[in-house]
């Protein structure tokens, strides 16, 4: 980076571009959460399952995010690993009301954590315990326990309940993720 580039960055005149991978089982609410982060006029009511992946762009806290919204359908989950190396942060979305598939979500998380492009890096992971509005949904503590998140010791992680339809919890999560990514950049760990 040249002196002019460094100065522009130091003055905060250019937003730093970060890649974020958004994963989780199908129907967990990934696309709905990202839809909420779009400008109001660009938000849609379209809730068709994602095929392959889509890329969404949004800015927050001085960072310019490219969010890779992956399909959670089992036949597309093998695609997730192609993006691990280039990602600066992960958003893992869980349908807190889908108790029948929480163990499958845990297996997918374990595979992600043990992947060579993830396992050694201190890459921040934000968990959304989504669909908090559904009666009998697990709390964020319940989801954390079911996914055994306490075993993640070499990464910054955070879990918060969310409702992708109203946006409740979404900004809290993105606030944490943007701060965690900035910290990891400062520490040269990303
Ligand atoms: N009640 C409730 N429904 C939600 C919430 N978030 C998403 N949904 C609904 O869940 C369904 C699936 O949402 P999507 O955002 O398409 O899920 P996805 O994770 O992107 O699914 P794939 O693209 O198939 O991987 C839709 O009908 C949404 O309206 C939520 O917080 N509460
Ligand atoms: Mg989707």
Characterize the biggest β-sheet: 6 strands, mixed
Q: Tell me the span between the first and last alpha carbons.
A: 17 Å
Structural class per helix/strand content? alpha/beta
CATH architectural name: 3-Layer(aba) Sandwich
Describe the structure in your own words:
- There is one protein chain.
- The protein is α/β, with parallel strands linked by helices and 190 residues long.
- It has a single domain, classed as P-loop containing nucleotide triphosphate hydrolases (Rossmann fold, 3-Layer(aba) Sandwich), CATH 3.40.50.
- Helices cover 30% and strands 22% of the residues.
- The chain is built from six helices and six strands; from the N terminus they run H-E-H-E-E-E-H-H-E-H-E-H.
- It has helices spanning 3-10, 30-37, 102-114, 116-119, 140-146, 170-186; strands at 16-23, 53-60, 63-70, 89-95, 125-130, 157-161.
- The chain has a six-stranded mixed sheet with strand order 2-3-1-4-5-6, with helices on both faces.
- The longest helix has 17 residues, at 170-186.
- The protein is globular and about 55 Å long.
- The two termini are 17 Å apart.
- The mean pLDDT is 93.
- Magnesium ion is lined by residues 30-31, 49-50, 69.
């Amino acid at each position: 980076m040249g002196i002019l580039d460094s100065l522009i960055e130091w003055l905060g005149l250019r937003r730093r571009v970060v890649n974020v991978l958004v994963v989780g089982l199908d129907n967990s609410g990934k696309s709905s959460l990202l839809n909420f982060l779009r400008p109001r006029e660009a938000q849609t009511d379209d809730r068709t399952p994602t095929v392959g992946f889509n890329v969404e762009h949004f800015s927050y806290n001085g960072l310019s995010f490219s969010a890779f919204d992956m399909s959670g359908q089992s036949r597309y989950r093998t695609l997730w690993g192609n993006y691990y190396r280039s990602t600066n942060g992960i958003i893992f979305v869980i349908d807190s009301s889908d108790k029948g598939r929480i163990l499958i979500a845990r297996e997918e998380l374990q595979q992600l954590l043990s992947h060579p492009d993830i396992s050694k890096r201190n890459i921040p992971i934000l968990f959304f315990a989504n669909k908090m509005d559904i009666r009998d949904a697990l709390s964020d503590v319940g989801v954390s326990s079911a996914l055994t998140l306490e075993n993640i010791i070499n990464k910054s992680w955070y879990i918060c309940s969310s409702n992708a339809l109203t946006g409740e919890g979404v900004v809290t999560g993105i606030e944490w993720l943007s701060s965690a990514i900035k910290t990891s950049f400062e520490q040269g760990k990303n």
